[in-house]
Amino acid sequence: MANMQTQKTKMCIQQPHVRNKNWKEVALGYTFDEAKNEAARCLHCKNAPCISGCPVNVQIPDFIKEIEKGNTDKALKIIKETNALPAVCGRVCPQEKQCEARCVRGRKGESVAIGRLERFAADNGVCEEIKPEKDKGIKVAVVGSGPSSLSCAKDLCAMGYRVHIFEALHLPGGVLEYGIPEFRLPKEIVRKEIETVISAGAVLETNSVIGKTESVDELLDAGFSAVYIGSGAGLPNFMEIEGESANGVFSANEYLTRVNLMKAYRNDYDTPIKQSKNVCVIGGGNVAMDAARCAKRVGGDVKIIYRRSEEEMPARREEIMHAKEEGIVFELLANPVKINADEKGNASSVTCIKMKLGEEDEKGRKRVVPIENSEFEIKADTVIVAVGTSPNPLLKSTTPGLESDKKGRIVTADDGVTTTREGVFAGGDAVTGAATVIEAMGAGKKAAKKIDEYIKGLSK
């Protein structure tokens, strides 16, 4: 394992010019020998700093030690004690900013590949889901079936609660199902992970839009002792520039939902998707990379427009590298100011202005400053806007006493999960705005503990 570049090259067997035309998984997992060799690099630190970098506190040195011994099943069991979705997290977590960022090995070289080892254990280990011995007979409602909700539901089931998960769409998984592409997170993996939560005792109800089919108040009146809101942040943001209403302009949410959840890329599905010649994706996060790489596979030349430099891009380095390899062009230090349309109202180009980096702001990030008289145009018959999302206002508008801030995020107490409405808890993107899968899962675990404390307090 000489370096990260070598690791990634070995694990991406398809050539970029081949893989950018199909939907097979790009980054492949370790072989048994590769996993054991990588596990052997772990120093098994006594006060392992890597654990503090994990939002769900996976006992990292313990599971890595079992992989080194060849005990893959035991390794997976250790992970699942705190992580409900290890096969997902091993693929999409930004480990380089979390657990691996605190790895002692990384101080004088390359961190242990904790994420890849977690994926190895999840893909190759077997761990039976154990149902709790005691059924409390108490019902808890969980709104949404994304990573935060699934994490909360699994922990509540383990405590003996009767958990009902209410999902608005026809398939569970939230952003795991509709947002992250097949080539990065195969949906078969998502389904298997969700099945483990259901096997722990949760009841899943799809096509249930809480706030429409039933309100939070109606759930509480129906005998649920508490409600957890893990409904995510599915309301897309736009730039509010001229021309955003032109035909061919999509939010990244809509575009990715058409492709992933509604299988627009498959010939045996009737979901329409625009056949583009020139695509511009606006944004620099993981969602922008996902949208751009999907658009490349659907067909056409793709450019990513980002107002800062590559160094400031919030997307994972791996995702940026894969996008570049697949032929996506990066138009950096450029900011869209107008989307132009032809006489039929179809998008034809994007007018951008060149930017330069200025002084650092209060967060230590360099400000961007437009360069006067530097406007230029980029051809685009499809424009995908990936500049963030906000929580859907439906639950706030239908739940009296549930407060939200000016960005639509549900307001919580200092614990991060207790809302202003008694018996109602919330976490994940619905509270923080769009963040990572593992951070949402951490909130779900915290909420499960708070819900347990709340319900126990009701009987005193």
Structure description:
This protein has 460 residues and is α/β, with parallel strands linked by helices. It folds into three domains: 121 residues, Alpha-helical ferredoxin (Fumarate Reductase Iron-sulfur Protein, Chain B, domain 2); 165 residues, FAD/NAD(P)-binding domain (3-Layer(bba) Sandwich), CATH 3.50.50; 150 residues, 3-Layer(bba) Sandwich (FAD/NAD(P)-binding domain), CATH 3.50.50.60. 34% of the residues lie in helices and 17% in strands. The chain has 18 helices and 16 strands. The strands form four sheets. It has a five-stranded parallel β-sheet. Strands 6-14-7-8-9 form a five-stranded parallel β-sheet. Strands 10, 11, 12 and 13 form a four-stranded antiparallel β-sheet that branches. Helix 9 links the parallel strand 1 and strand 2. It is globular. The N terminus is likely disordered.
Topology of this structure?
Elements: H1 4-10, H2 16-19, H3 32-39, H4 49-52, H5 60-69, H6 72-80, H7 86-92, H8 114-124, E1 139-143, H9 147-158, E2 162-166, H10 175-178, H11 187-199, E3 203-205, H12 216-221, E4 224-229, E5 235-236, E6 249-251, H13 252-260, E7 278-282, H14 286-298, E8 301-306, H15 317-325, E9 329-332, E10 334-341, E11 347-360, E12 366-370, E13 376-379, E14 382-385, E15 389-390, H16 394-398, E16 424-426, H17 429-432, H18 437-458
Parallel strand pairs: 1-2, 1-4, 2-3, 4-16, 6-14, 7-8, 7-14, 8-9
Antiparallel strand pairs: 5-15, 10-11, 11-12, 11-13
Helix pairs in contact: 3-5, 3-8, 5-6, 5-8, 6-8, 7-8, 9-18, 13-14
